[in-house]
Amino acid sequence: MVYDIDMLRTFYASYAKRVKAAQQASGKPLTLAEKILYTHLYHPEIQPRFRRGEDYATFRPDRVAMQDATAQMALLQFMNAGKETTAVPATVHCDHLIQAYKGVQTDLPAACQVNREVYDFLQSVSAKYGIGFWKPGAGIIHQVVLENYAFPGGMMVGTDSHTPNAGGLGMIAIGVGGADAVDVMTGMEWELKMPRLIGVHLKGSLNGWAAPKDVILKLAGILTVKGATNAIIEYFGEGTASISATGKATICNMGAEVGATTSIFPYDEQMNAYLCATGREEIARLASACADCLQADPEVLAQPEKYYDRIIEIDLSALEPYINGPFTPDAACPISDFAEKVKANGYPRRMEVGLIGSCTNSSYQDLSRAASLARQVKEKALKMASPLIINPGSEQIYCTARRDGMISAFEAVGGTIMTNACGPCIGQWKRVTDDPNRANSIVTSFNRNFAKRADGNPNTHAFVASPELAMALTIAGDLCFNPLTDTLTNEKGEQVKLDAPAGETLPRNGFTVDDNGYIAPPADGKSIEVSIHPDSERLQKLEPFAPWDGNDLIDMPLLIKTKGKCTTDHISMAGPWLRFRGHLENISNNLLMGAVNAFNGKTNWVLNTLTGEYEAVSAVAKSYKAKGIPSIVVAEENYGEGSSREHAAMEPRFLNVRVVLAKSFARIHETNLKKQGMLALTFIHKDDYDKVQENDRISVFGLREFTPGKPLQIKLRHADGSEDTFEAAHTYNEMQIKWFKAGAALNL
């Protein structure tokens, strides 16, 4: 089935003409990213020449996708917009709230029972406003979007940071917070800083143990977790054609780990084949008819250094498998050097669990190649040294993999098949272990490996690798095992070597599915009542935040000065807290509980300057709020890295935190803070971070003259009576300043 076919036919009928107009208006050859961005400008008749990384532009995306954890807050906001239906096609996908414990047969029914109130809310809101609804168990949002909605040349936003997965089908797909999604669903202008362009030239083709995942794992080591902030990564070169559409999606998906706005590949036969295999032959024909508009112009490919802000070359033929971690996805290491890294750093050598799946690596090809290794266990008289967990990407993937013998291959070696959902990747793993705090090592095919991310244990050393490498290390149970060179001792005492993985890019007999889990909205849902019980612990109607009172912020107490990495996981933890994603007051109890206090090295233990006692961060914030006192958070680099969860911005706003002053911000989180009416400021001189003391009273001056490009003044009044003053920068434009003054973007 092709969803939204009329919209797609209309899109392609005018796409080539719009690209030509953009080329003429810009007066230069265009990259693929520029073609898609310029053809989606909200005011295409203007066609100004934007300065990359500086100017803001407004866009009209084609669609919106929301996962269940973030959809709650997004739809609660949309319900206040006064609209009868969404302005663009939108979908909700129930994938985040399902716990991975015993396996799909037990876990899915349990999740449907535990989360019934939330699922009923999401389904009823979807039905009322014309939004497509994908039931629990239908699959992981990004795999489902790739199979059903992504299309070459399109533009979409999604309330999840890994929305760029759709770049595997040549789509500009950007992760956003719920307020941004509401802008698009209401037909308003959606704003984005015009991204810089990083061109990645792929040469050669993958072979042996190397997988598409290794491309982005290597790139993460080059760019680091913030190296692509406010940039689009555009892949080009002959090597792109050798990578499957789902392999391309894997690479684009993990671009979020280097801060990229999104990532994209040019249209080719691999995409055409995937569209046809997933029942979208008409879309393949329409895209093929304008294929030259779905890749960079020839002049760009001939002289890429003239058109991209940075060029990185990767030779796929020479690429070896990578394994990244622990605790950060950019700690890249080729497998040939990994054993030495493990020994040198004293990482727990025993590999205790292997996990395959997540939105990044749960396609048919991923499972096919991993299953080829699982079959070798019996063929070579081996035994699994570690437990194996599998999360298929969608019901379609699961049904097809079951028919083709992959599921039985995993089960034959003791693998546990979990629900088609995020599970451990989003912290929804009820791990059974002898000690929940013991140092241990796991290997996953996921995208993130922050401390506590998978199982809540801060001492779990999580390493990210391809499904193939994760499977091999699970068989060996040894982090120092290199399947390219090392052997294993089988039950006969023989030394055997694993053969390189092999598998099918697409199923030879086509995809199959019993029930894909989709529920279409009724033709007219206006009469549907969406009820939220006033005593609900999981859902709460939103009240507008108060507008700015017109005054500078004077003598704010410091809520916390964070030390080191402070991701959205640290600001608003997932795992068991996911159940409160629709209840702002309740989820605010987890505010910054994972952040490290720079003054004592502890988490969730900060000074309450009103009492002189140390308490949880949220408790101190509530104490200040109760007395009408605004507070401030001070942080280091790339504050808000990771998930797009806008709760990390809404919680501090709800508890009257008015300012976050950091060395730098992750893109999505900075936007989320602005949307909620907060001040996101950066140190002009990063050493000024060191001047902030625990008992400081901190003021922000210049808000009456708040204008784009003009720094604000910070004064630190120390406990001994001395003071420090310095300037702080910001990136607010005129519209964003209006958001601040109104109290939040939605207040406008």
UniProtKB/TrEMBL annotation:
<dbReference type="GO" id="GO:0003994">
    <property type="term" value="F:aconitate hydratase activity"/>
</dbReference>
<dbReference type="InterPro" id="IPR001030">
    <property type="entry name" value="Acoase/IPM_deHydtase_lsu_aba"/>
</dbReference>
<keyword id="KW-0411">Iron-sulfur</keyword>
<comment type="pathway">
    <text>Carbohydrate metabolism; tricarboxylic acid cycle; isocitrate from oxaloacetate: step 2/2.</text>
</comment>
<dbReference type="Pfam" id="PF00330">
    <property type="entry name" value="Aconitase"/>
</dbReference>
<feature type="domain" description="Aconitase/3-isopropylmalate dehydratase large subunit alpha/beta/alpha">
    <location>
        <begin position="34"/>
        <end position="477"/>
    </location>
</feature>
<dbReference type="InterPro" id="IPR050926">
    <property type="entry name" value="Aconitase/IPM_isomerase"/>
</dbReference>
<dbReference type="InterPro" id="IPR015928">
    <property type="entry name" value="Aconitase/3IPM_dehydase_swvl"/>
</dbReference>
<dbReference type="InterPro" id="IPR015932">
    <property type="entry name" value="Aconitase_dom2"/>
</dbReference>
<dbReference type="GO" id="GO:0005829">
    <property type="term" value="C:cytosol"/>
</dbReference>
<dbReference type="InterPro" id="IPR015931">
    <property type="entry name" value="Acnase/IPM_dHydase_lsu_aba_1/3"/>
</dbReference>
<dbReference type="InterPro" id="IPR006248">
    <property type="entry name" value="Aconitase_mito-like"/>
</dbReference>
<dbReference type="InterPro" id="IPR000573">
    <property type="entry name" value="AconitaseA/IPMdHydase_ssu_swvl"/>
</dbReference>
<protein>
    <recommendedName>
        <fullName>Aconitate hydratase A</fullName>
        <ecNumber>4.2.1.3</ecNumber>
    </recommendedName>
</protein>
<keyword id="KW-0816">Tricarboxylic acid cycle</keyword>
<keyword id="KW-0479">Metal-binding</keyword>
<dbReference type="Pfam" id="PF00694">
    <property type="entry name" value="Aconitase_C"/>
</dbReference>
<dbReference type="InterPro" id="IPR018136">
    <property type="entry name" value="Aconitase_4Fe-4S_BS"/>
</dbReference>
<dbReference type="GO" id="GO:0046872">
    <property type="term" value="F:metal ion binding"/>
</dbReference>
<keyword id="KW-0456">Lyase</keyword>
<dbReference type="GO" id="GO:0051539">
    <property type="term" value="F:4 iron, 4 sulfur cluster binding"/>
</dbReference>
<keyword id="KW-0809">Transit peptide</keyword>
<feature type="domain" description="Aconitase A/isopropylmalate dehydratase small subunit swivel">
    <location>
        <begin position="556"/>
        <end position="683"/>
    </location>
</feature>
<dbReference type="GO" id="GO:0006099">
    <property type="term" value="P:tricarboxylic acid cycle"/>
</dbReference>
<dbReference type="InterPro" id="IPR036008">
    <property type="entry name" value="Aconitase_4Fe-4S_dom"/>
</dbReference>
<comment type="similarity">
    <text>Belongs to the aconitase/IPM isomerase family.</text>
</comment>
<keyword id="KW-0408">Iron</keyword>
